[in-house]
Amino acid sequence: MFKSLIFSLSFLLIFFPPKHIFSQLLPISPPIIYSDTQGEWNLLHASIGISAMHMQLLHNNKVIIFDRTDFGPSNLSLPGGRCRYDPVDTVLQNDCTAHSVLYDVGTNQYRPLTIQTDTWCSSGAVLQNGTLVQTGGFNDGDHVVRTFSPCIDDSCDWTEFPNYLSERRWYATNQILPDGRVIIVGGRRQFSYEFYPRNPQASSSSSNSQSFDLRFLLDTRDYNENNLYPFLHLLPDGNLFIFANTRSIVFDYKQNRVIKEFPQIDGGDPRNYPSSGSSVLLPLDENTSGGGGDVVEAEVMVCGGAPRSSYGHAVNNVFERALSTCGRLVVVGHANPSWFMENMPLPRVMGDMLILPTGDVIIINGAESGTSGWELGRDPVTRPIIYRPSSEVVGQRYSIMAPSPRSRLYHSSAILLTDGRVLVGGSNPHVYYNFTDVMYPTDLSLESFSPPYLSAEYVAVRPKIVAVNETLGYGDTFTVSFTVSEYLSWREVSVRIILPSFTTHSFAMNQRMVVIKTMGVYREASGSYNVVGVGPSTAEIAPPGYYLLFVVHSGTPSSGMWVKIS
């Protein structure tokens, strides 16, 4: 019911930052569009020179993309004849090619960036000021922290801090915390965690004091590991959900103690690298909280993976069928939770799971057989799946989308873009760049997938945001002004914020959606409306930083607008 209140709030238009022309413009590939009734694929570039192993969207609508320094020379030169000299690089000590690019979504152009140390199988998170903090890697990069701060020109590049980390962090996972720090968990043969920034009171000579043991990681390691890149999700009560292999816990990182362990996921097969399933924290809905300190319910979903024996068989050229199950577990809000299992239409290992602006989950990339590792995947899954967690009919939650013409296997990645498309790149199942005489050549291309909600048939009900506050405070009332041609009902309107992910190795780190508590929708003029919302209740619900805000009307999202939660 509409409330007879007048909200006299000042609106501040948010414009996307101006698109700057790169000093070194690179050719734009002619658009090649593949259409189907279930979404649409668009080839953005046949080659960006590197393979998109890691990706992160920044708040200036540019995407950091990088692979690793020990693939050998890439297909993209560093500008101005610049070269990277690294005497301990395992492949090429003097390298004049780039292994990272900055991709401008608006102009579809990219420029090379310079990485000095090896970023292979590393992790990352974005700080509340918009700076990407990237941690670890391999060889000379395994103790390194690297940062990238967005700029309005072409002057910004990577900054590296050697020996910043107290332990080797290779195949670790990062999670942004309510206080703005980043927790870095695990890594190969590292059963511990640490924080960025580290404790400034600890001297460099006592750097080991920065690391804290986590026995759970040791206990979940099997003969093929299967606990690397553990799934981390920040819960509304401020604790961490950690999933590794088949087991999961609620962990109090402040007191270094396990609060609760859940039942093992059904089936007994691992879901973490190299078995490489994926996981999301389903949308946190502030409209369901009863107030008075009630904690918002939190539910985790884990999908795909490979049988425990898959890695050992794959190295002997026997490729087992990937797992086809998804499990959902209510981790906050249920006294005795158990896994609820569902079957996907297609088996999948090395798939990426992303939350779409509608609250649905897209599962994209990967293979039907084998496992993660060099040459160990077979039967690419080129059709994404969209899962609708809110559907009450269990058998109707999955929809199969249009196929991509490209295989995306080991070392592929995907992220959500501001306009609701999914950016997809990468796939290099080889020790080096390899384009000939192999079953699945190294892929340097970049493409986008447009989910069905971007179809022209939904133009009339698609909202367009025209004004919103640039900064949203915790618990503060704010207004979003939007237009829509065919307005249906206030019941069809919701406001959602998404924290963009750092995606690599089938896990979208830090990703979360919060459904904003709404107070009402008010008509301002013909086709123009205001929706009044309340900022996130706590930093545990939404850690401070830059989020994409969407208005969803009749299941159709607007383009996102950047807002800063603080």
What does this entry look like structurally?
Residues 1-23 form the signal peptide. Keywords: Signal. Residues 462-565 form the Galactose oxidase-like Early set domain. InterPro entries: Gal_Oxase/kelch_b-propeller (IPR011043), Gal_Oxidase_central_sf (IPR037293), Glyoxal_oxidase_N (IPR009880), GO-like_E_set (IPR015202), Ig-like_fold (IPR013783), Ig_E-set (IPR014756). The chain is mainly beta and 566 residues long. Helices cover 2% and strands 37% of the residues. It is built from 2 helices and 46 strands. Strands 22, 36, 38, 41, 44, 45 and 46 form a 7-stranded mixed β-sheet that branches. Strands 8-7-4-3-39-40 form a 6-stranded antiparallel β-sheet, with no helix packed on it. A 5-stranded antiparallel β-sheet has the order 1-2-34-33-32, with no helix packed on it. A hairpin with a 6-residue loop joins β28 (367-370) and β29 (377-380). It starts with 31 loop residues before the first strand and ends with a strand.
Give the secondary structure arrangement, pairings included:
Elements: E1 32-35, E2 40-45, E3 54-57, E4 62-66, E5 84-85, E6 94-95, E7 100-104, E8 109-113, E9 123-126, E10 132-135, E11 145-148, E12 159-161, E13 173-176, E14 182-185, E15 192-196, E16 212-213, H1 215-219, E17 231-234, E18 240-244, E19 247-252, E20 257-261, E21 278-281, E22 284-285, E23 298-303, H2 310-314, E24 325-332, E25 340-343, E26 352-355, E27 361-364, E28 367-370, E29 377-380, E30 385-387, E31 398-400, E32 412-416, E33 422-426, E34 446-450, E35 464-468, E36 471-472, E37 477-483, E38 493-499, E39 502-504, E40 507-509, E41 512-515, E42 517-525, E43 528-534, E44 545-553, E45 556-557, E46 561-565
Parallel strand pairs: 22-41, 36-46
Antiparallel strand pairs: 1-2, 2-34, 3-4, 3-39, 4-7, 5-6, 7-8, 9-10, 10-11, 11-12, 13-14, 14-15, 15-16, 17-18, 18-19, 19-20, 21-23, 23-24, 24-25, 26-27, 27-30, 28-29, 30-31, 32-33, 33-34, 35-37, 37-43, 38-41, 38-44, 39-40, 42-43, 44-45, 44-46
Domain Galactose oxidase-like Early set: 462-565
InterPro entries: Gal_Oxase/kelch_b-propeller, Gal_Oxidase_central_sf, Glyoxal_oxidase_N, GO-like_E_set, Ig-like_fold, Ig_E-set
Keywords: Signal
